Amino acid sequence: ERLLIDARGNFHREALAPTAVRDFYHRNLFGAPIPVAALFDTATAQVAVDLAQTDAYTALSCGGSLHSNGAPASFAFSLVFRPLMSALSCDELAAGLLHLVHLDNQVDVFGGWPLPPGANVQTQAQITSLKATVDGLRVQTRAEVRRAGLLCVEVQSTFLMRGFHCGIELAVRRRLQRKLVLRPATPSGAAKK
Length: 193
What we know:
Blueprint: E1 2-5, E2 11-14, H1 18-30, E3 43-48, H2 51-61, H3 76-79, H4 81-88, E4 100-109, E5 120-133, E6 136-147, E7 150-162
Antiparallel strand pairs: 1-2, 3-5, 4-7, 5-6, 6-7
């Protein structure tokens, strides 16, 4: 953001263009721009599980003791970070990255966890819902890690883009994956015995 001074000597902030905000984060986090997913689309990335990264994460998050079955499940957030940022960096939300607050994670492990060091995994992430609140825009995401097609871990996260309202009807636009449940219908007027 740039500071501007008006004729009366008052300072005003000029907002950065959304692409400048996105470029700043991508360069600082990843060293270069990364692909950007469209709003509600799935972003993907191939990741190699690095032993040094796994050990460092485990040491920091577990007080230095390695779990007998490898890294803790919360390590999955590190693995899905790139596609998660690709999803959060969509054109509609890029300007809100400056106000992004990570609220929570829910991590569910599946048959492919834990991951062996050196494993090549497929990661993906997408925004599943957006809700305008008085505090800003609440963003729900879902990410997963797969190894050779086998689901290893799923991470559902909630973020808040504090004070950010992007001007489109985001509260109405949701993409939720729903399961269709069919129940047999009973004929109306059927007598119960």
